[in-house]
Amino acid sequence: MTPPRPSSTNPPGCLRDAVDACVFDAYGTVFDLGSAFARCRDSLGNKVGPLLAMWRSKQTTYTWLRSLMGEHVDFWHVTGNSLDSAMAAMGIRGDALRSRLMSVWFRLDAFPEVKKVLPGLRKAGLKTAILSNGSPTMLTAAVRSAGLHDLLSHVISVDAANVFKPHPQAYQFGVDQLNLPPEKICFVASDPCDAAAATSFGFRTVWLNRDRRPPEHLPRRPEFEIGSVKELPALLGI
Length: 238
What we know:
The protein is of the alpha/beta class. It has ten helices and seven strands.
């Protein structure tokens, strides 16, 4: 196994005994969106991948803009708006198809390695949590669909904070729910922007870079980079 690559001056393994919780972003980190939406290939054919990519891009843009504009709605509403925009841009129509695509968010699977790693984190005494923009209803359904309800101590939606990640208030909401200082929380995200913002906030951050993408040019970079959740226990000294 390739050792975790530090993206700062901290040596690999420095998180041993340093954190009390391991917190994950949800979509793309814990939940495998690509495999879930591939089930719609019978209706969309080769458009399923491009549609999902555009949908997710608009979803991210809309959350950022709404946070900046002070126009908060829950993530389910944003998800629907984003899908409508993506479908229109790609010339895809159909109310039944739209309903089917939206329903997938309630029937997600976890990446297999996530389900294998979480029990060991719990056994080691760490709090395990999701901190996500997803609405409470979306997250509750996805966690149960993926069979993770007994493996997570907290499932935290930032909806009650009335702002989305990567706004600092969203991360502060997670801190308040866990009752831990930021430096005692290891935050894992597959989105490098989420990881960078969490670093700026004060979390000990791990960028889950499954696709080996180059780093973003942002003021803060995540402290560590791994290619699989399977590398996380070694980083945590478990």
